[in-house]
Write a structure and sequence with these properties.
single chain, alpha/beta, 2-enoyl-CoA Hydratase, Chain A, domain 1, four-stranded mixed β-sheet, 11 helices
């Protein structure tokens, strides 16, 4: 597989880069955009390139079509006979969701349809999430005898609290778009055909601000889950002083 760069397209992913905004489409419509090895590899390659690309100021992640954002793991591919060592190597090699979460640029998920398992986990790795009316979201892994493997057990409790996350992860219950907004998984529901337009406008509004300030603000917010309030406010002042020194 060739490396996927911002503005390029691959077998399972296509992108567009315009005026600092990178829009990324998952593109396996016949498989409900399920995450196969090709998609994981292309996304890993893309996020590595994006992280060091100063031309990319913000990212929108969505999928082609209107029914599915991502159905999660490609179960047909995962059922193919491979050794335990090969399976472990595959799972550990890509880690595309962690690369997405670690991007210095702000990210917006435009969840245009059903987002299950790894599909929802990709959205959870983004900074802001918009969802289409009628979409369903879930982490159903325990119902088929596995657990979320893309950060779901870690990010969802931090986002909505342990008790609510426990109910969703331990039962695999599906949430409507409205419910997902009500409990804080999604920011807002978008009616009709305007989801991508709203997500891209949000991305463009972010991309118009000075990128150094945007990146430092994202870094500070992400670290707020990991450090004390006192240390966080010290880091905030350090960042402010540093940015003032560049003006």
């Amino acid at each position: 597989m060739a490396d996927l760069l911002p503005g390029g397209s691959g077998e399972s992913v296509r992108t567009r880069l315009e005026e600092g905004l990178l829009t990324v489409w998952l593109d396996r419509p016949a498989a409900a955009h399920a995450r196969n090895q090709s998609m994981r590899d292309e996304l890993s390659s893309l996020w590595r390139a994006v992280a060091s690309d100063r031309a990319v100021h913000a990212v929108v992640l969505t999928a082609t079509g209107e029914r599915h954002f991502c159905a999660g793991m490609d179960l047909k591919e995962s059922a193919q006979p491979i050794t335990a060592e090969e399976r472990i190597d595959r799972l550990r090699a890509s880690r595309d969701i962690e690369l997405l979460a670690a991007l210095p640029q702000p990210t917006v998920a435009a969840v245009n349809g059903a987002a299950f398992g790894g599909g929802l986990e990709m959205a959870l790795a983004c900074d802001i999430r918009l969802v289409a009316a009628g979409a369903l979201v879930a982490l159903p892994e325990v119902t088929i005898g596995i657990v979320p493997g893309g950060g779901g057990t870690q990010r969802l409790p931090r986002l909505i609290g342990y008790q609510r996350a426990a109910e969703l992860i331990l039962t695999g219950r599906r949430l409507s778009a409205v419910e997902a907004v009500e409990i804080g998984i999604m920011l807002r529901v978008v009616e009709g055909q305007g989801l991508l337009d709203q997500a891209e406008e949000l991305g463009r509004s972010i991309a118009r601000s000075p990128s150094a300030a945007v990146r430092r603000a994202k870094e500070l917010m992400r670290r707020s889950d990991e450090v004390s309030l006192a240390l966080g406010t010290d880091l905030e002042v350090d960042a402010l002083v540093s940015l003032l020194g560049t003006r």
